Amino acid sequence: MSASPASNPKSPDISEKNKKYDRQLRLWGDHGQAALESASVCLINATATGTETLKSLVLAGLGSFTIVDGKIATAEDIGNNFFLPSDCAGESRGRSACRLLLELNPDVRGQHVEQPLERLLDTEPDRLQAFSVVVATELTDSCLSRLSEVLWSHNVPLLVARSYGLVGSIRLQVREHLVVESHPDPDSVVADLRLLQPFPALAAFCDSQQLEAMDRAAHGHTPFLVLLYKALQRWRDEHDGAPPSGYREKKQFKETLQQFRLRTADGVPELEENFDEAERAVNTLLTPPSVPEAVRTLFASQQCNSLTAKSDDFWVLVKALHEYVENEGEGLLPVRGPIPDMFSDSDRYIQLQNIYREEARRGADQVQRHVHLLLESLGRPSDVITEEQVRHFCRNTHALRVFEGTAVQQELRHLRLPANEMEPGERDGHLRDAARRGAVPIRVQHGARRRGRPGRDGRHQTQGVSESPAVRLGLPEHHQGRLRPGVLSVRRLGATHRGCADRGLRRPRGHQAGDGAVRAHRQHVHLQRHQLVQRRVPAVIGLCDLCSAAVAAAGGGAGYRTPCVSTVL
Predict the structure, then answer these.
(1) What is the pLDDT of residue 7?
(2) Which of 4, 61, 90, 236 is spaced 20 to 30 Å from 106 by Cα?
(3) Please, what is the end-to-end C-alpha distance for the chain in angstroms?
(4) What is the model's pTM?
């Protein structure tokens, strides 16, 4: 029988904000949205990559952003950047992009700084520490190295984004990535029900359920937690108080569980779905609760045991959790609270929900008291970590993780070492680092076949990285002096200057090569191919200015014009 409309309570009015961000609120919740709305992002250079990154954050409800860009918008910028209007040529690129980005979401605040990053680093480097994260695009290695050093010292995350056609890379620099809510697959998370070590309220509820006195309907709708609890009591009485362990004992325990199932007059077991649920849960729920190894590692870390007034709130919470585990928790984490769906009547299921919620609240309150004592000892306000933060933390204690990062500056410093000062193995890793960080559009192919020299396993042997610095590659003069060893993206034997080989060597049909530019280009390609094959040295990826002009003269058009690799870096 359906309830009348008057008897149905009206759902609370949904605010305009919740309507606007409904889809993402379902993903990361109110606390995730609050973190986004309190964040401040700095974008270095309003390139197409940078503005598209900022667009996604603005639409999601970012708190504020600042664009640092001292460049003037050009026709090339307008052609590849959606957030630069067609009439902004000659104007500040950062101002034009900022104006259009703010039109996307009136709730977001934005500003621009019309000066290059180099000047900001010289005059106001501490200004960058006010941001939640810095997104950098279109930076030289020297400028990126300085930016990395400043942000690393202030513990501000840095996101370096690069794109080149359909190829792109992202490099995140962060000292510590602190994970509280990891959103694991629900099927992979075992419910925290504490059946082997029941807390008093759970034990009292299960003891109050008298299976022998129930009718058929009530018996068939008894939550499977109660069935497992009753079967555990009988098992422990028969095994000196020890719970079942191992496959064989758990198989025997299932037989003990079936003894509680109703039977017909002929002794045939009744079909009761709650008993089927209980049997399926034996292998997962009858496991002794313990503190995960990853959480124990956090308890033993220096950050947890050497708190200071500047310690992150995360480590204060971890320390408070550690003290709870050693005292009130008796070696266990606080109860998480949620229970799985099960075949049960509504009244008893709601009672179980309330029992677990109350136990989770009690554990969180005890952790909260430890947090207050720690904050007081550190000389910080007691309300800097709210009660809601503590409860959210306690619900996810089983999934706490910390990932430590490295500085971009270290990689750049390593890449600038002269090739002749590196060991052979170090040079190989050196090139792999350049490939992984996406300094240029890359395709690295380790090793090359030697003609006529198969290896012991029947395959061709490989050739190591050439020791020759860039000026010994035998490249034309317009390349020499512009290339730095250690940052070349490479292909091996038989490779040519990729831009020349792939884009300029074969002329489009209908075009004749008769002028000097095309002849110079053909000679350049021939020289490249000859020396690469003979010396087996790395090949540079990208088109130099001379080759770009030659390709255009051959009918390739301006669309093929690409800077040489040295100018990309």
Answers:
(1) 39
(2) 90
(3) 73
(4) 0.67
